[in-house]
Amino acid sequence: MSSAYSTLVEKFRQLSRLDHAMTFLQWDQLVMMPPGGNQSRAEAIAELASMRHEMLISPEIGELLQQAENQVVEAPEKRSLVEMKREWQQAVCLPASLVKAQSLAGSTCEHGWRSQRKDNDWSGFLNNFKEVAQLAREEAKLRQEVEPEKFATPYDALLDLYCTGDSSAFIQEVFTGLKAELPALLGEVLERQHASADLTGSYPIEAQKHLNEKLMSCLGFDFSAGRLDVSMHPFSTGDRGDQRITTRFRDTDFADALTSTAHETGHASYEAGLPLEWDDLPVGQARNMCIHESQSLLFEKQIFLSRPFLRFFTPAIHNLLPESKRFDADQVWRACIKVQPSFIRVEADELTYPLHVILRFEIERELINGTIEPKDIPELWNMKMQKYLGLSTEGNYRDGCLQDIHWTDGSFGYFPSYTLGAINGAQLFATIRKERPDWQDLVVKGDVGFIRDWLREKIWSKGSTMDSQQIMAAATGEGTHPRHFLAHIRARYLENSY
Amino acid sequence: MSSAYSTLVEKFRQLSRLDHAMTFLQWDQLVMMPPGGNQSRAEAIAELASMRHEMLISPEIGELLQQAENQVVEAPEKRSLVEMKREWQQAVCLPASLVKAQSLAGSTCEHGWRSQRKDNDWSGFLNNFKEVAQLAREEAKLRQEVEPEKFATPYDALLDLYCTGDSSAFIQEVFTGLKAELPALLGEVLERQHASADLTGSYPIEAQKHLNEKLMSCLGFDFSAGRLDVSMHPFSTGDRGDQRITTRFRDTDFADALTSTAHETGHASYEAGLPLEWDDLPVGQARNMCIHESQSLLFEKQIFLSRPFLRFFTPAIHNLLPESKRFDADQVWRACIKVQPSFIRVEADELTYPLHVILRFEIERELINGTIEPKDIPELWNMKMQKYLGLSTEGNYRDGCLQDIHWTDGSFGYFPSYTLGAINGAQLFATIRKERPDWQDLVVKGDVGFIRDWLREKIWSKGSTMDSQQIMAAATGEGTHPRHFLAHIRARYLENSY
């Protein structure tokens, strides 16, 4: 190792220890902290974030990167250096004044949105949102200027923060493939869908907690290296050896918590399986949100919500929640995968969800690239909702363009990862099914170890040592392609096969 | 404010935000973290501790302190500066090589002790302990050299880390007053003590958890600014607006957890009542461990274990733990305050506890000042145990000089704070009793607000704006004096009055 490189390794390890601190302080804030702790916690996290940022953008790191680039020639370290430089560049390219203005405008807009959404107040929201959008455009331009040959449009530079490596042109191509078939498929599924049972009942929370822990164990979660807790919104976080996932319980429903727990278990499994030899370095981190979401959706949609897995797992539900005995495994399965077009993305089924995402991708792309203005959003939203899902949001901002938190603080470029994740997940699982034609015989017995082993080898252990499309191609024989997702939808919803 | 002083305020606020992070990462480690998280957590905490140390000992702070000392003349800031300088001096006076050697020797000795204690292996322990003691002597000399006019002996310099402001000569005088009466008092109490009930029974943990939370609420704990959890050893920690205490439950006993919860609620109440205007600065912190322990022991011994409070609280015990109904309030009280000489400090009652502490104080003082050697400890221990408690530890190292963890990592000077705390607590409560002769009428109704108000005004809100003996004198009319503790023992154990 060159001495510049090994100094960088030490520096990035320090950064990752600050990340560790922030990670668990934030977990505690959302899961354990009493309200009185808000101010001192916010101050502590802001201080750590600021120390981390100062350390990362110090001139020393820039010089070390330059020296190391001239010294490092071997493949694995070279790759590690690329990922270090990416993180450094993403931090140094924005002036502190812009970051501060964004933070302020974002807080104001998000704060206002919480009541404006309830009040269906688009014009009030627009007042604050204009500045958020303007600052995001500035951010996008500055990020684009760092690597103009890589980012074809300003939006591509924002996209790269979440969908690292996948360009907007590529994503558009993938989404075009989906759009060409999904609306018609939706009509067909709705026509042929059986009526499904209403799972509503009385399901004690304490028993549900045990049931969810049981599900996690069945899915391979290691409780000596992680926890399940309760929070307002489910999430997954952690560090080496300690993955924390959360869920939420309602005492009238069991399916929602289980589905969400399976989803977060996928995220946690990916994190737990990252390459130990690159631990604490950028190259050892999860590749991007499109891969991350592919793991959570694979666990949720491809494993947990599969007919064989629910045949295996329903006896555990019956056992811990006696009132659920009214429903057999296939009734539970059908109720959980019911397709129903609706206004709200987070409540959407797996067939309509991509249409919600494509709509947002198309709008935010134009917004950041400057071909539409914030005021144009509601009309475009309504038009696309009618076209993709047959629903009108005219005048209904609450259930339309005001429903998501993402844009309020300027997180543009995040939405596509949900659907790229769904496609990647379906594509990875299609390969697994092909390699293990007996997969249903295994899963119906609760054996998912072969799936975990495959994912560990092909995805988790790769960290960021390859680009996401290289990872997909090495694992499945090709880059992200919508045909696998569409095949999955047909098999599950038209052929009822799994 | 001088500009040097206000820069110092900013610097110490940064340090306190790192403290916040370490505080809650350590709480998590002991209360929530799965075992798999050990390594990454240890690395993160070590990194934060090292960053904090580097920031504190930077030459800039030394220069700012010097500048500020010449500029600051007003009383409150001057006091604040004194406490900043104390913290800085305690950090800069030790070379990094010594700190590292101590950390290594301490870990080795503590690790070995865990099995050597079980094996009664004094000579194995001695092998490791010699170096710990030698390094502690070096530390003591270096600390003494900083302020030779303040520290009469090397041991005084270590004592100052925990009993800040109380010299070893002063403590010896106080302890001499106790020693003169306690052994005889013990004999008298043992002779006249009634037989007490055996509280052993079956007490479900979940109900005990509710009971302990109820106790905390009765004692004034604010659950919007704190939590109760479970850990292997009870402790209390936290930061502004967020006090975390822990306890442990056994399903055969309820008294132990309640007593410990009352104790930790005292610690937490002190922390929650510290002066907001000095928040995040050294002068706003708890004065020292002798005052801290006075608050926990006042809550435990003077309030919770008082006859009137247990008359008030026993119905809640009956209500949540039906099997406890066999015992009336006075039976619970007598069982909880039973006096019984024993080998083990942590299991000792309030009458014999000081004798365990005095023994340790006398031995560690001589050890650090160099008038005895580590090899002399077992003989001295046995001699003093026979003299103070009538028990022989000859050849029984396990229940003698190997029982405590404190010395294994070089924490000399801590033990006296337990008994100074007990004396201070009794002295403070004697003043409260004098000012409120109707105290039993209030406490028997569960009213402890007048006690909290008094403590807030006299102790909590003072932070470190005064020396501990000034605080005691302002609150009670004199510095720490053993007569109040002895009077409390006589009143409770010979006169059965409360």
UniProtKB/TrEMBL annotation, chains A, B:
InterPro entries per the UniProt record, alphabetical: Peptidase_M32_Taq
Active site as annotated: 264 (proton donor/acceptor)
Cofactor: Zn(2+)
Keyword Translocase applies: no
Free-text comment on the cofactor: Binds 1 zinc ion per subunit.
Presence of keyword Protease: yes
EC number(s) recorded for this UniProt protein: 3.4.17.19
Catalytic reaction(s) noted: Release of a C-terminal amino acid with broad specificity, except for -Pro
Binding site for Zn(2+): 263, 267, 293
Protein family per UniProt: Belongs to the peptidase M32 family.
Name of the featured protein: Metal-dependent carboxypeptidase
Organism: Desulfopila aestuarii DSM 18488
